[in-house]
Amino acid sequence: MLTIEDAVARSQLNHCIRVIRRTTGQTMIESPFHYPDGDHYPIYVTETGTGGFVLSDGGHTLMRLSYENDIDKLLTGARWLLLEQVVAQEEAGYNAKNGSFYVEIAADQVVSGVFRLGQTLTRVFSLIFLNRSKVESTFYEDLYGQILSVVSEDRVDRDYRIPALPEAGNYPVDFRLEAKTPLFIYGIPGRDKARLTTIFLQYFITCEVPFNSLLVFADQSEIPRADLARLSNVGGEMIATLNASTDFRRKLSRQLQF
Fold this sequence. Notes:
The model has no long low-confidence stretch (mean pLDDT 85). The chain is 38% helix and 20% strand. It folds into two domains: 4-127, Yope Regulator, Chain: A (2-Layer Sandwich); 136-255, Trna Endonuclease, Chain: A, domain 1, CATH 3.40.1350. The protein is an alpha+beta fold. The strands form two sheets. A six-stranded antiparallel beta sheet has the order 1-2-3-4-6-5, with helices on one face.
């Protein structure tokens, strides 16, 4: 049975990686891959018992992401679907028990395994930097989560159509909440949605639909001033960024008072 050192030595790209045996008994591989801060990916090696090896990050990637981010959001909803897709495309695996990503390889596939794992970790790490204005499903899911932090799910209608409104199917409301005056919440991930929401709200006003509105931006500073001015003329309260959770809860709670 080949040792990991033998397997690396026989590979055509053995100059790119090296084996490190720690005093703790752990066997690791040093590769060209590294995190944004310059630290190399930790790649742990274990034998499979059938002549192959498992290469794993030991949970370090998720641990690093957890320093400044909510990992629960990465492991649920739209981001989790993207993460699953990444893992499947790289023919890797995810161990939910310890939060590690891994690849299982034959003894003659060490280098390709290292590069597969490295590519997997690079893509997983980039998921946390998803631009909300480009990945709308993630933005709206985060907005829904914010709403549910204030009210129960049974009070929220998603993708709501107003009964008896002419052509109601063309004028959906992102979220409708029951209140003395119904509250319409729109998520604004970018300029196009700002313009569309302006049209929707103006139509509701023209049709004399009773409503209040709360407009939540991914980043209000990215909306052109002219578009923002038109939206301000027909819209109600605004939240400049979804990250302003305290401001969001305060304004939403005030709107829902009967």
